[in-house]
Amino acid sequence: MNRSFFLVLCLGIFGLNALPMRAAESDCRVYELRIYTTKEGKMDALLARFRDHTCRLLEKHGIENIGYWVPIEKADGADNTLIYIVAHKSREGAKAAWADFGDDPDWKTARVASEAEGKILATAPESIFMNATDYSPPVKVGAGEKERVFELRTYTTPAGKLEALHNRFKNHTMNLFTKHGMTHIGYWVPTDAEKGAGHKLIYILAHPSKEAGLAAFTAFRADPIWVAAKAESEKEGSLTLPQPDGVRSVYMKATEFSPLR
Predict the structure, then answer these.
(1) Pick from 131, 154, 157: which is nearest to 202 by CA?
(2) Residue 22 pLDDT greater than 50, yes or no
């Protein structure tokens, strides 16, 4: 290892790593990422149902609303996709709460009324139960100081590489994200094998705009500290699968009824 490379790497380990990080070690909530895809022309009806009925009824049955988003780009589902995260006290509590929600007469009435002109969803909702990583900041609802967009990022690792990816985030990546103006929202791992437990990391960042987010990542990837850290962490192979499976990014805007904005 040459001297300049060594110095850059040491700066990444001992310099930026000294920045304060608030871990979510005490966050025992079970998170649930849900993705809804509507039939053509039904997106407004879905959003209206959530705004006027669903969100309130979820809270009634003990399901905590965290954030609701719609993709910015049509290719990602801007016309037909709702992405949201809720939280539960436990997995067992989630099962009971969803059952109570489904049996609620107010929900049944709202669903029938909203589907008077046909079903809204094209497919069954996708659900991914998740736990916060030990390095995730506390996930809090509320609006940012300025208007912003959100970015949902999903990383898929080769077998046995997830722990190394976590270590890279803890020791380098998160501090460098902060350095380049990105805001951490939350970092999670799926809990079920069929949804990616053991080889997926799911996280959300916030940016002033999509353009700002793209520019921030360009600067991040060119940062000498990142270049050194990435090379050091991947001596035995990449920590993510080759594209397009390894890293997926979806830029999103919060709905007007989203607690996290």
Answers:
(1) 154
(2) no
Asked if pLDDT for residue 36 goes beyond 70, the answer is yes
pLDDT digits (tens, 9 = 90+) for 95-117: 999 999 999 999 999 999 999 99
Annotation: CATH topology of 30-128: Alpha-Beta Plaits (3.30.70)
Tell me, what amino acid is at 135?
Y
Q: Please check whether residue 122 is in contact with residue 129, taking contact to mean a CB–CB distance below 8 angstroms.
A: no
- Structural contact between residues 251 and 150, judged by C-beta atoms closer than 8 angstroms: yes
- Where along the chain do the CATH 3.30.70.100 domains lie? 3-27+132-254, 30-128
CA distance to 67, 129, 208, 215, per residue, from 175 (Å)? 24, 27, 18, 17
Each residue's pLDDT tens digit, 60-82: 999 999 999 999 999 999 999 99
Q: Are 184 and 144 in contact (CB under 8 A)?
A: no
- For the stretch 156-188, pLDDT in tens is 999 999 999 999 999 999 999 999 999 999 999
What token pair was written down for 166? Answer: 């976590």
Report yes or no: 245 and 150 within 8 Å, Cβ to Cβ. Answer: no
CATH for 3-27+132-254 (3.10.150.10, 2.10.260.10, 3.60.10.10, 3.30.70.100): 3.30.70.100
The pLDDT of residue 128 is 98
Of 156, 168, 185, 177, the C-alpha closest to 247 is 156
Rg (CA), the chain: 20
